[in-house]
User: Fold this.
Amino acid sequence: MYYRLNLKKDRSRRVPLWERLDLKRPTKLRCFSCRLRVQSSWRICPQCGTCLNNNQPKYLHCIWINACWVDTDRQTELMLLEILEDVFAKVFSAFRSINVFLTSEPPDSQQWGERFTHIGLIIDKEPVDYLGVASFCKGGVTDRAIVRLDQIINTSERANLSSSQLSNLIANTIAHEVAHTLGLDHSELPADVMNDGLDHRIHSLMPPSFHAEQITQMNYAIHQHQVAFLSSLPAEKSPKQK
Assistant:
């Protein structure tokens, strides 16, 4: 503030004080994602984990969330289709600060080729002791995961959950498995979406979300994955080399 006021006397020019005052405030920087006030030296937003350096190229990774059940009754199918619309909205919101392209439609082969992660939402009669399972490489990107909707529905019925709570539980399970495919490991915090063994008493009460460190780790894994892919491509020959 002292330097902006410029109160030092200028006897040579005899400029009046009111003409020497500089009351223009510097621009207040904000995160373009969550609008938190940030500093120019920050690289990552501490609240949402968004990369603040726009000079770095932004690499996206495609994730296909595929509802691919077959043997189910009409009533269950209609119930799931209604709930999944809300589920997808919650999952997409949880990944808004992460460099992914989420889709419920088959990825465009020309744009993505085989470079996408397939998340299958399935219903099966075979009993299992998990809600979902994913391929996992700590700090790396993998290509597949499965979410057992039948097990989530059974849990919901035993706990007498409402449709909104069931939606939260499905959304948390999908987000949990997607995060595993983006290199995120389990958390010991009971309310964390990455807690090992999602508790329906907790994760049915709130939609999924990630803290800044988790967002940074996933974005870094995506960046490294895309850089490795681009470096594996043959270099384009210049006209002289052709």
